[in-house]
From TrEMBL:
InterPro entries: AfumC-like_glycosyl_Trfase, Nucleotide-diphossugar_trans. GO terms for molecular function: glycosyltransferase activity. Residues 8-19 have a biased composition (Pro residues). This is Capsule polysaccharide biosynthesis protein.
């Protein structure tokens, strides 16, 4: 990355990062580091894990920019960023980090490559998250998650601090009682008790299966509310799918989130587990709408509007600000000041909303990185600036359990 000085305004609550605390080498040099990361240290859990089935070189350019930003920001603080894959002969193949033939680590469909369905790549990546964190610790993030806040400071004051009560970091969409951690950002130390149980349940659900279709009805998840329930799906030439069925489809798609909700709401005396108590005492949850989805709320999930606003040029010196420029500015300033990250929406969401900002950045290569635009201002800030404060956690209240009994037994 060239050393830029575009003179973008810094919103309140942020400050510039000293250049000595950033990796500002050219993109090609950063890419070589990402493709050849150092060996895993047994003495550090500062690992940031990503997964892209075909490997980093095959990623879309806008998501490669996401990964480089993580590296530029956090590698000088001791974090190692790795984009794992399943590409043959790749040194970053998941098989070089975990035993892909171990039935206690992966289901048979992962081991033999038979995961199917429209979202096979997403479900493949779902299955590597907990095994990586359980063995090595650190952070797992989706490649579509852009980061804004001070991750290193948050880690050092929670998981990285032996005196802290917090053992898990994530975004939370369930509120103080509902419990709904987002699987696009998960952090813990090695061997975490919550994630170990989540992994065991997910493996059980995958037994004898090649997809997650129908898992919303599993007796092992009985009592956990389905996701969605407020949108329909309309596809050309097909009958409209109503909110109830769309919710079941979404639950199947994000079954990993459903698993976390169940384990957090499980009381298993035989297994020595009290999920509601664990959440109240040990989970640091960042409210997800402000924390990572704010641009969607500010544009009412209108992806074309978000794309148009982010593609606008900032007014030149002496020019009056138009109404659309004002709106785009307010969105960027609000996100940078209030959000810890920015999750680009892809996947099944496109069935409900035909376009998202992420899908349009993918279709219009380079549109997210045009100097002088609001999108470039946002990207610039994510490398060169940091927030003054870390976000608060959701203050969890102990809820009634969804299930009382053994984790893997139907009740």
């Amino acid at each position: 990355m060239a050393s830029l000085n575009p003179n973008y305004p810094i919103p309140p609550g942020l400050h510039p990062i000293p250049p000595s605390q950033l990796d500002l080498r050219p993109d090609a040099e950063v890419d070589q580091t990402l493709l050849n990361p150092p060996p895993i240290s047994p003495h550090s859990e500062k690992n940031i894990w990503f997964f892209w089935h075909a490997g980093y070189p095959s990623m879309h350019p806008y998501t490669q920019r996401n990964i480089r930003a993580w590296h530029r920001r956090f590698s000088p603080a001791g974090w190692v960023i790795r984009v794992l894959d399943r590409a043959p002969s790749s040194p970053l193949n998941i098989a070089n980090f975990l035993d892909v033939a171990d039935p206690l680590t992966f289901p048979a469909a992962f081991c033999d490559g038979t995961i199917g369905g429209a979202y096979a790549p997403q479900h493949t990546s779902d299955l590597v998250r907990w095994p990586l964190l359980l063995r090595y610790g650190g952070v797992y993030a989706d490649v579509g998650l852009l980061h804004i806040g001070d991750l290193d400071r948050l880690w050092r004051t929670t998981i990285g601090d032996p005196a802290s009560r917090f053992e898990v970091l994530s975004y939370d969409g369930g509120g103080s009682v509902g419990r709904g951690l987002a699987n696009y950002f998960l952090a813990s130390s090695r061997g975490n008790a919550l994630f170990a149980r989540c992994h065991a349940l997910l493996l059980k659900l995958w037994e004898g299966r090649t997809s997650t279709e129908g898992l919303h009805a599993s007796p092992l998840l009985k009592g956990v509310p389905h996701l969605g329930g407020h949108f329909s799906i309309e596809e050309e030439g097909k009958p409209t799918i109503g909110p109830a069925e769309a919710g079941r489809m979404l639950t199947d798609y994000i079954i990993q989130g459903q698993v976390m909700t169940m384990v957090m709401g499980l009381v298993d005396e035989e297994g020595g587990w009290d999920g509601p108590r664990y959440v109240e005492e040990h989970v640091f949850g960042i409210e997800f709408m402000v924390g990572a989805q704010l641009i969607n709320e500010l544009t009412a999930w209108d992806g074309q509007l978000a794309f148009r606003l982010m593609s606008l040029k900032l007014p030149k010196e002496g020019e009056a600000e138009s109404e659309e420029q004002k709106r785009a500015r307010e969105i960027v300033e609000t996100i940078l000041s209030k959000s810890f990250g920015f999750k680009l929406a892809h996947g099944m969401i496109l069935k409900a909303y035909k376009y998202t900002l992420g899908s349009l950045w993918r279709e219009n290569e380079g549109s997210d990185d045009v100097p002088g635009t609001y999108a470039h201002w946002l990207r610039y800030a994510m490398v060169y600036w940091n927030q003054d404060e870390i976000p608060p956690t959701v203050e969890y209240k102990r809820n009634e359990p969804y299930k009382v009994g053994p984790l893997l037994r139907e009740v």
